[in-house]
């Protein structure tokens, strides 16, 4: 057990090292999340950041908020489904204000 255990730990160590190396090599040139790019293009001219409009969705559950945005955004500058989804994912991940 202890032998397999240490081999396993060694493998885990290698895996973590490889991940760190990957993250480091991605560096500052790492691509923007798709949702952020779409937001910059479609929304940022009017809403510099989502902070203000996201406050009104603050008390909703994640499902309700997604449903509400999915209902509203097709006629509010995000008619394209893929980009709308990306924006909603990005808002949900990064811009839900703390309660
Ligand atoms: C041409 C300007 C403009 C663009 C582009 C724009 N918005 Fe808006 N948006 C507004 C205005 C004006 C309001 C209403 C005032 C407010 O709530 O700040 C608004 C309101 C909202 C609201 C609140 C909805 C509500 O019921 O009050 C959300 C959410 C929103 N926008 C998201 C977005 C997203 C996401 C994008 C990009 C897909 C976007 N907006 C693009 C001008 C814009």
How would you describe the overall organization of this protein?
- The protein is mainly α and 99 residues long.
- It has 2 domains: 1-30; 33-99.
- The protein is 65% helix and 0% strand.
- It contains 5 helices and no strands.
- α2 packs across α5 and α4 (62-72) packs antiparallel against α5.
- It is globular and about 35 Å long.
- It binds heme C (HEC).
- Heme C is lined by residues 42-43, 45-47, 53, 72-73, 76-78, 87.
- Residues 42-43, 45-47, 53, 72-73, 76-78, 87 line the site of heme C.
Q: How much helicity do the residues have?
A: 55-70%
Q: Stretches where pLDDT falls below 50 for ≥5 residues?
A: none
Terminal-residue CA separation: 47 Å
Bound ligand species: heme C
Order of helices and strands: HHHHH
E-strand count: 0
Global geometry: globular
Radius of gyration: 20 Å
Mean pLDDT: 83
Strand content: under 5%
